[in-house]
Design a protein that fits this description.
heterodimer; A: alpha/beta; six-stranded mixed beta sheet; four-stranded antiparallel beta sheet; 9 helices; 10 strands; B: alpha/beta; Rossmann fold; five-stranded antiparallel beta sheet; 11 strands
Chain lengths: 261, 281
């Protein structure tokens, strides 16, 4: 059943603030992601990529349009707990996203309590195994862990509810290159093992291209281009903004390309 | 004619911070020269790259132990300068560009006042002269409407414009050496290119030296002339930027392999295995 659509978004609009100062952040986005696919969202700060993630996750509660998860339409204002379990977020900063005064065990137990799941000890152990952390880490506090280990905890917390979808919001941008490689490998393995569907937000074109099958480029709340990984690697792109982002991430061009006055 | 003397010459620089029990060395026996060129320092967090940059400016807290066989800048021994003499060097002859304009600009001073302050302080210019110099500097960093921008406060400008303002502030006193600590890490890709172009123009055009601290291998490789690679407080390798691919040290090789590539993606990334011996001398 590779072809079942896991995430379907149509005509998504999100605005913040009240008239007359409305900030229209997402402007009519359509998006279909198949089960087991990894879909990337790239764009500059403020383009609305994290807001799309928030609307799908149920964090952003005020949106227009339709969102269906695993074929079931969801409502913006009220979501069932069982539905919310289907998609979990991993945030950017593993320093800010883990409670500094809770042990890793307690951090991992919290979602289980909220969702009333049993066998909590067993689930915590298995979640730590899956992300490659020793089981004794459940007695530690976040400050006793390195950045990469903390991000593993954040991934374990997302996985512990057995979701079908992981929403990854810049999961490696706070990490060093060598640690980023470990986390990217882990994410790749988990996706294969558990047939997870990923929606990855990042500003790093190389990271998105490494992980994703298709990549949407956003500008001012809209998709300007959706490219396959192959097209991104070859540079076979249609929109000038996509090309700008791609070239920019290849390094500095000592060029007359920027007008010297 | 370029002079052959390096602007900055550092030999066996060690920086140690006092802890409750003993001294913790963050930089150990680092030696390098910077001429009128762009030198990059690459390293992961905690490798000592920023500490090295700040040690040159002597910006560390008083208890920090900075020792070196030599730390010379244009024939001046930086370690033996008094605090008063250092103040005349900082911002005037050596300037520093920091990562995030949001935190490093003064939030309660207009942009124009902040830039002019450097010129008034170091060059004894009158307010009127300083104002003209400020406008000229803002034009040099490609800010279109300098008179309007001068009256703005830092929270009213974008990140890219903030960083250009910082560059203009650092260059107004025409320093010989610029230390840029992750100057573009907080910026979006398209703005980054623009800021780098301006920095490149000014450094090359005015024959300055640049010490460019960054964790971004692709960026340093394409922007700098030479690269120092730091690991655990030591320089493990020094290379021409164009020859980074031929790095010999296993740490540098490991870093390059761990980097996902946009043009040549691999299925799995190589994971860096750290050898304790790299941290030894």
């Amino acid at each position: 059943m590779q072809d079942r659509n896991m995430i379907e978004v149509a005509g998504l609009n999100v605005s913040f603030g009240r008239r007359p100062r409305v900030n229209h952040v997402v402007r009519g986005v359509d998006l279909v992601i198949a089960q087991g696919e990894c879909f990337g969202l790239v764009g500059e700060s403020g383009c609305g990529k994290s807001t799309i993630l928030g609307a799908i996750a149920g964090r952003v509660k005020d949106w227009q349009g339709t969102i269906s998860i695993a074929g079931v339409p969801v409502r913006p204002d009220r979501r069932e707990l069982a539905q919310l379990r289907q998609q979990q977020i991993v945030f950017q900063d593993p320093f800010g996203s883990l409670h500094p005064r809770h042990t890793i065990g307690r951090i991992l137990a919290e979602p289980l309590e909220i969702h009333g799941m049993d066998d909590r000890d067993g689930r915590i152990d298995r979640a730590l195994d899956q992300v490659g952390l020793p089981r004794r880490f459940r007695f530690r506090y976040p400050h006793q862990l390195s950045g990469g280990q903390r991000q593993r905890v954040a991934i374990a917390r997302a996985l512990i509810l057995d979701p079908q979808i992981l929403l990854l919001d810049e999961p490696t941008s706070a990490l060093d290159v060598s640690i980023q490689a470990e986390i990217l490998n882990l994410l790749k393995d988990l996706r294969e093992e558990r047939r997870l569907t990923y929606l990855l937000v990042s500003h790093d074109m190389a990271v998105v291209t490494h992980l994703c099958d298709r990549i949407a480029v956003m500008q001012k709340g809209q998709f300007v281009e959706v490219a396959t990984r192959e097209a991104m690697v070859r540079g076979d792109l249609t929109h000038p903004y996509t090309r700008l982002l791609r070239e920019g991430s290849l390094g500095y061009r000592p060029a007359a390309s920027v007008a010297a006055e | 004619m370029r002079d052959t003397q390096p602007l900055l010459s550092v030999r066996n620089l060690t920086v140690a911070f006092p802890s409750l029990k003993d001294l913790v060395p963050a930089v150990r026996n680092v030696s390098f020269d910077v001429g009128r060129e762009k030198v990059g320092i690459i390293g992961e967090s905690g490798s000592g790259k920023s500490t090295t940059g700040r040690a040159i400016m002597r910006l560390h807290p008083g208890k920090t132990q900075i020792t070196a066989d030599r730390m010379q800048f244009q024939g001046l021994d930086l370690l033996s300068q008094s605090e008063r003499q250092m103040r005349a060097i900082r911002g005037h002859r050596i300037a520093m560009i920091l990562q995030d304009p949001k935190y490093s600009l003064n939030p309660v001073m207009t942009v124009g006042e902040q830039i002019a302050e450097t010129a008034i302080l170091h060059e004894n210019l009158s307010r009127r002269e300083a104002r003209l110099r400020t406008i000229e500097m803002l034009e040099k960093v490609h800010i279109r409407d300098p008179e309007r921008v001068m009256g703005l406060y830092p929270h009213e400008v974008s990140g890219g414009m903030g960083q250009r303002i910082m560059i203009s502030m650092m260059l107004i006193a025409k320093p010989a050496l610029i230390i840029a600590d992750e100057p573009t890490s907080a910026l979006d890709v398209s703005v980054r290119q623009q800021v780098l172009t301006i920095l490149d123009e000014l450094v090359t055009g005015n024959d300055m030296g640049l010490l460019f601290i960054s964790h971004d291998l692709n960026l340093v490789r394409s922007f700098c002339d030479r690269v120092l690679i730091m690991y655990a407080g030591r320089v493990v390798e020094e290379l021409r930027a164009s020859e980074l691919d031929q790095a010999r040290h296993p740490y540098t090789q490991g870093l390059l392999e761990a980097l996902p590539s946009l043009t040549d993606p691999k299925d799995r990334l190589a994971v860096l295995r750290r050898d304790p011996a790299w941290a030894e001398v």
